[in-house]
Every structure is written in structure tokens, then in C-alpha cells.
């Protein structure tokens, strides 16, 4: 202050005034604020000296300029002011959020300036890293200057995170963890999101630039699988990302997985669509076929195209389909380590007609696995599955079948049946019985001879798939018995404890009730809607028959599916309710 006052002969005085548009006025503001808030018509009179004096504070500065002091905007004073603020004594206020300080320069700027992303470190521990995303909603224009719209965009990733936590046991590991979740009250034109970055995280585009040239064919296959895995889960949960680009993807070196962020343009079932703004929100630096040809947008097929653009770069090091501002199109790579086996896969995923692409990422992943099956390192995959099961709490080392009966004792009236059945389990393969714990009626099913063995990768894969199915059922809300406990026994065996659900088997319900035609239509519609709910979550039953349907009669008839968790190396489905040739 002293330096500037000495050079100018006075110190600067700055006032901040707000001009309201339309019919808005300052009537409801406190007097301490209202004097600095004006209507548009009021402000337009500022050119009149008398009106100017009414609008600004009474500073008594006029005598300075009457005495020959240069005004701040004069050729004499302006260089002095500029030199002072650009000098070493004035530094910009650092960008900080929740104790994290952002780097001075962003490491990614949105092509339409909708947001900047900064690397950040915690002020107390530089080892704690973060990603700070600062929105600039003014870039969306006056027509989109609505706080409700800004909220839809800025809270998209928060809402996806909530859906993931309630719908998937694994997907939450594929998303950046928020340091602090935003709420609607936090949303302004420069709202900020903050996410943790583990030390093992590197941005995918940086990994591709620095490491991809040295990857083997197997490395490339693994990276593409890691790329597709989280989006397979997202699509099963009804979420389309709609802006998949390497800067939105982080490679977790310790897990060899890819972590996803940047959900600002995402499509969420049950939430307002952002499709009208998607081209503006899109950060990927190219034109999509849907936009070039004005096609209707299907979020999952849009994701499939964007995933294929990245997969191309992973599979064919040093080659890219990108030309800034133009539309990516399939072309055969100059150097192909896969000898053409992926050509048809890429051609379908990159088809300019959305209807001809893979409909979802899980199907895209399955087709990729089929195309690369002969080139995969089967032993490495098998060993990974074995180690994952061995180290999981699902594996109960030292536990046996008798221990299960001790932990979950049968109801007294079933004791005479259960122990003889256990003695014969080697022949029958499994037993089931009822028990009660904590006032809850439970059902226990125990399979014999299921052993985790590194020399039996096929069995291990089935155990792994069974556990994944249990995890999925546990973390979604569908009409099927809730799993209370499960485990793989170290001494051989597998068990699942689920809630006991009362109801009439479908056949019994139909036989015992005389239904009007309208009631039959209603119960049929309930059945179809119930099955549809499972299929939406990528959970086919596999053995759907009357014995696997329980009907609960009340104010509204409901249907519960049972028997979704069956472990067997033989086909168990009732062929009476299947086509003659189900494989065709």
C-alpha cells in the first residue's frame, strides 16, 4: 500500500456493484448490500454526474484529481498500477478446496472451457494427491444460466457414485473416490469437485504416450479388458458415460485396472437427460457419427464407439484414429500385432451406424475375449482367479461341513433329517435345511466336493463366477431371497445362507385359485415385469420354471424368484420349460 501510494500520490479505491437484469430488484436485500445492487435502468443513468454520485460511495477523492494527480486509467498511472500487480509483491490467490491446493496451471482444459482440471496436493501432506475439477458454467451461455441445470451437471458424478454403491459390489473400485461429496447448495457458476488420486494412479493418455510402445500382445489384451470392464458394469446399472476419453480414465498400476471419472454428460435412468448439451459438454476432441449425421443417440452404443477409439490406440501402438475436429473411422493399422483377428471386432464397434455396433460394453467385452482367446495367457488368468479366491474372506480355511451346521444349527424338527442327509452328501451332492438366527428364518444350502485347487482352473472359474453372482445379488434390490452368509470351505464344500421367503409355489397358486381373466392378465404382467427387472441387471435365472416362482398374495400380488444360486458342473435347468434346442 505504501509503495503504490507513494508512486501515485493516493491509494486505489475499488467498489463492487451488481446490476440486475429483467424485473429483479434489490428490495429484499439488507441495506448493507442493497446500496451496491441496482436495476438495469438505474445503472444506465450512471453517465449523468449527479446520478454517478448517487450510485457510488462518497469518497472525497475529487480534490486529488483537481490538484493534478493522475487518474488511475491515465497513461501516466496505468503502467504504475499494472507493474505493481504483476510484480513479485502480488501473487494470485491459490485455488484450494477441502485442504487441497491446486497446481497453478490446469493439466486439462475442456475444449469449450466448461471446466479445468488441476492436480492438487493436501496442504499438510504432499503425498495425498487429488484431482480438482473447477467448472465454468458461464461457458454454457446465457440460455443455460440456470442453477438447476448446473446442478444436474455438477452432481452427475456424485449421483453415479451413489447408484454404484447401492447397485454393484465391484464398480465402486472403478471410480475415483470423492474427498467431499457436493450438494445442491454447493453449486455455483464455478463449482468444484475434488477426488482422491492414489499414488498408483496415472492418467491413461500419459501411460499410452510413455509406455504403450513397449507393451506385449498380452499386455495390450489385458489393458483393453481393463478398459471395458468398468463400462460393462455401468451399462448393467443403467448408466451411460457419454464422454469417454483417456483424460477421464486413470490406470491403477497396483490393480491393473482402469478407474473412471468425468461423468458430467452421463445418461442416468430416472434423471433428466443432458442430451441437448452433450456436444458442448463433450471433452473428447472429435466429432461423433451421431452428431455428424444427426442420428438419435443411444448412450450405450455411443460409449461403445468411444471405447473402440481408445482400444485402437491401445492395440496398435503409435497409431490413432483421431484427426482433430473430425470423425474417427475404422482403418486397418499399418502394424498389427494381432494379424487381423480384431478387424471385425473394431469394424463393428466403430460402425458409423449406431444400430450396427455392439449394444452394450459387456457384449463388446465378451466378443473381444472370444476374438483373443487363443492369444491370452490362460495360466496367468487362472492363477489370478485362484489367488483372488484364496485371499478373500469368502474362503474359510479350516472350515468344514460340520462347522457350517454348528454355526447355523438346523431347526429341532429337522435334525433327524439333516444329519443323515449330511452323511450321504457325497452321493447326493448337496443338502438344504432351515434354521433361525436373531429372529430371522433362514435357509441353508450346502454343496459337497467343491475344492479350491490351483490345478483345477475350470472349477476355480466356476467358483469365482458363482461368488460374483452372489455379490451381485447381495448388492441389488431385486425380489429374490437376500444372502445372509456364504463361503468356500477350506476342507471342501460351499454354502449359502439366505433369508427364508414365504409364499405359494406358482403351480400351487394357480391350482388353488380361480382367477378371472383380468386377474390372469395382472399376474402374467407381474411375472413379466419381475423377470424384466432381473434381465435389466444382467441376471438371467437360468432355470426358470414354476417351482422357482413364489407368489405372495396381498393387496398387490408379488412374485419372488428362488433358486438363482445353484452350484453344479451339470446342466440343472428343467428342460420342460426350454426350447428344444436352447443353444441355437
From TrEMBL:
Q: By its UniProt entry, which Gene3D superfamilies does this protein fall under?
A: Transferase(Phosphotransferase) domain 1
Q: Select a single GO molecular function from the record's annotations and give it.
A: protein kinase activity
Please report the stretch or stretches of sequence annotated as the Protein kinase domain. Answer: 50-369
Q: Which InterPro entries match?
A: Kinase-like_dom_sf (IPR011009), Prot_kinase_dom (IPR000719)
**Source organism, top-level taxon:** Bacteria
Give the matching PANTHER family: PROTEIN KINASE DOMAIN-CONTAINING PROTEIN, SERINE/THREONINE-PROTEIN KINASE NEK
Name-wise, this protein is Nuclease
Species in which this protein is naturally found: Salmonella enterica (Salmonella choleraesuis)
Amino acid at each position: 500500500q505504501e509503495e503504490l501510494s507513494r508512486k501515485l500520490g493516493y491509494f486505489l479505491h475499488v467498489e463492487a456493484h451488481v446490476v440486475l437484469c429483467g424485473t429483479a430488484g434489490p428490495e429484499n436485500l439488507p441495506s448493507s448490500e442493497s446500496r451496491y445492487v441496482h436495476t438495469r435502468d438505474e445503472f444506465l443513468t450512471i453517465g449523468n454526474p449527479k446520478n454517478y454520485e448517487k450510485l457510488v460511495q462518497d469518497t472525497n477523492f475529487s480534490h486529488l484529481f483537481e490538484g493534478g494527480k493522475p487518474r488511475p486509467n491515465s497513461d501516466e498511472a496505468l503502467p504504475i498500477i499494472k507493474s505493481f500487480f504483476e510484480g513479485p509483491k502480488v501473487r494470485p490467490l491459490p485455488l484450494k478446496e477441502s485442504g487441497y491446493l491446486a497446481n497453478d496451471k490446469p493439466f486439462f482444459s475442456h475444449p469449450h472451457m466448461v471446466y479445468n482440471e488441476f492436480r492438487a496436493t493436501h496442504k499438510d501432506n504432499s503425498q495425498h494427491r487429488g484431482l480438482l475439477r473447477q467448472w465454468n458454467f458461464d461457458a454454457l451461455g446465457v440460455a443455460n444460466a440456470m442453477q438447476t441445470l448446473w446442478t444436474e451437471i455438477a452432481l452427475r458424478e456424485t449421483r453415479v457414485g451413489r447408484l454404484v454403491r447401492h447397485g454393484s459390489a465391484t464398480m465402486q473400485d472403478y471410480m475415483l473416490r470423492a474427498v467431499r461429496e457436493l450438494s445442491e447448495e454447493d453449486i455455483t457458476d464455478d463449482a468444484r469437485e475434488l477426488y482422491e488420486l492414489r499414488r498408483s494412479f496415472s492418467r491413461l493418455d500419459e501411460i499410452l504416450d510413455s509406455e504403450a510402445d513397449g507393451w506385449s500382445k498380452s499386455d495390450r489384451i489385458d489393458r483393453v479388458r481393463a478398459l471395458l470392464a468398468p463400462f460393462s458394469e455401468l451399462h448393467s446399472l443403467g448408466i451411460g458415460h457419454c464422454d469417454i476419453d483417456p483424460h477421464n480414465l486413470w490406470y491403477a498400476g497396483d490393480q491393473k485396472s482402469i478407474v473412471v471419472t468425468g461423468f458430467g454428460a452421463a445418461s442416468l435412468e430416472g434423471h433428466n437427460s443432458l442430451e441437448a448439451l452433450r456436444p458442448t459438454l463433450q471433452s473428447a476432441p472429435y466429432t461423433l457419427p451421431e452428431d455428424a449425421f444427426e442420428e438419435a443417440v443411444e448412450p450405450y452404443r455411443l460409449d461403445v464407439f468411444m471405447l473402440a477409439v481408445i482400444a485402437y490406440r491401445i492395440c496398435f501402438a503409435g497409431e490413432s484414429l483421431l484427426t482433430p475436429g473430425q470423425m474417427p473411422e475404422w482403418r486397418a493399422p499399418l502394424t498389427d500385432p494381432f494379424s487381423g483377428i480384431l478387424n471385425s471386432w473394431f469394424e463393428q464397434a466403430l460402425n458409423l451406424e449406431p444400430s450396427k455396433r455392439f449394444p452394450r460394453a459387456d457384449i463388446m467385452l465378451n466378443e473381444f475375449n472370444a476374438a483373443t482367446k487363443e492369444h491370452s495367457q490362460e495360466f496367468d488368468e487362472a492363477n489370478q482367479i485362484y489367488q483372488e479366491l484364496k485371499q478373500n474372506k469368502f474362503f474359510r480355511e479350516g472350515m468344514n461341513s460340520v462347522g457350517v451346521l454348528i454355526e447355523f444349527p438346523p431347526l429341532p424338527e429337522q435334525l433327524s433329517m439333516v444329519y443323515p442327509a449330511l452323511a450321504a452328501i457325497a452321493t447326493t451332492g448337496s443338502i438344504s435345511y432351515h434354521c433361525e438366527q436373531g429372529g430371522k428364518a433362514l435357509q441353508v444350502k450346502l454343496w459337497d466336493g467343491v475344492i479350491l485347487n490351483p490345478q483345477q482352473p475350470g472349477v476355480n472359474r466356476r467358483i469365482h463366477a458363482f461368488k460374483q453372482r452372489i455379490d451381485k445379488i447381495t448388492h441389488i434390490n431385486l425380489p429374490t431371497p437376500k444372502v445372509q452368509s456364504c463361503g468356500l470351505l477350506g476342507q471342501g464344500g460351499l454354502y449359502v445362507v439366505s433369508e427364508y421367503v414365504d409364499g405359494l409355489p406358482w403351480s400351487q397358486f394357480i391350482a388353488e385359485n380361480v382367477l378371472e381373466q383380468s386377474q390372469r392378465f395382472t399376474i402374467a404382467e407381474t411375472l413379466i415385469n419381475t423377470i424384466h427387472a432381473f434381465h435389466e441387471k444382467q441376471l438371467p435365472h437360468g432355470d426358470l420354471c414354476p417351482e422357482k416362482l413364489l407368489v405372495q398374495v396381498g393387496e398387490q400380488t408379488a412374485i419372488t424368484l428362488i433358486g438363482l444360486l445353484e452350484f453344479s458342473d451339470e446342466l440343472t435347468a428343467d428342460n420342460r420349460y426350454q426350447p428344444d434346442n436352447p443353444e441355437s
